[in-house]
Amino acid sequence: MNRSKLLVLGATALGMGAAAAGAYRATHPSDAQGPASPGPGRGRPQLADDLFDLPADVVHHELPTPDGGVVHAIERGRGRPLVLLHGITLRADVWAPQFHHLADRYRVIAVDLRGHGASRAGRDGFGIPRLAADLATLLEGLDLHDAIVVGHSMGGMTAMQFCGDFPEVLAERVAGLVFIATRAHQVLPPYVDRLARRLVAQGQHRLDGGRELPARATVNARIVRTAFGDRPSAKAIGIVAEMGSSMDPRALIPSLDGLIDHDARTALRATRTPSLVVVGTRDLLTPVPSGRHLAHLLPECEFVVLPRAGHQLMQERPAELAELIDAFAAKVAGAEPSVAAAVRAGDGRVDEDRVEPTPEPAPLAGED
């Protein structure tokens, strides 16, 4: 692999390694409310490999952005729009399981965030505010209404920024928000934040000077495995590794820089759109406490903890995620009073006691 694609992975691996020892207690199932289920580990059936392949009949869209870029998206199905936003280094096709599980009842639309896949940045460059503007472009360009926006990791942060920057578009076109394995702020632990900022600045300086980035890590299955929980699919791991290794560092470095500065707490407190937050107990990147903190910032939010799941929930637990999206859609439509009630009525794989209501948001210590 070319050295110029690797610096950000070195910074990410460094942050994960430094945080892993202290993160285990925070992400252990005992942190989640309710009993740890004995079922979802070794007794869970392995997912079929073809679930991770996109269906052949997806439709492609290319939408021009105001700054001269292009938003690429893929679509399948009919019904309420379901807009899927991936995390950093990934692409729209990471949502392949959702195209299989949900396109029979939703208009499923997965987006390549700018700098990823076939989307291209315009003159405004990269960063989460630019991604939020691209989401507004997509919603308006496809004339979507009553959409449920589902954001994973950086995609979730994109949706948070969108809430603050485009409240009118949110009110007109979005009925609900689902945040998967993401954070409201402080993406990196404080003790690695400064080093990560320095590495990113050095990497950007080298790119601006036309030089390659130094090799600090490699994208391989062993590194990617740490983003997954219990018994992941080998094919899913390979897909994530391929996506990470193929991303252009000219997009990767400024995208990581945007993650480091992310802070959506003010925007989230002002958001009245119904929402759901989902996290896995074995997610080292966005652990249970950060997910619960996010949920407590949002009015009208419910919080779900999936035992033994990691960061890649769309690939690890597609059936459970489909069940939760259905339950959330039922709540948004007024057919059920809550996600918990819809889960109980559906009698599926998600236990009702895994769904926590959250109180009205309260200021954090030290905040105005």
Structure commentary:
It is a single chain. The chain has helices spanning 7-27, 96-102, 128-141, 154-165, 167-173, 190-208, 221-225, 234-246, 249-260, 265-269, 288-297, 313-316, 318-333, 339-346, and strands at 59-64, 70-76, 80-85, 106-112, 147-152, 174-180, 275-280, 301-306, 355-357. A hairpin with a 5-residue loop joins strand 1 and strand 2 (70-76). It has a nine-stranded mixed sheet with strand order 1-2-4-3-5-6-7-8-9, with helices on both faces. The protein is of the alpha/beta class. It is built from 14 helices and nine strands. The model is unreliable at 1-41 and 364-368 (pLDDT under 50). Helix 6 runs antiparallel to helix 9. It has one domain: 3-Layer(aba) Sandwich (Rossmann fold), CATH 3.40.50.
At a glance:
The chain contains 14 helices and nine strands.
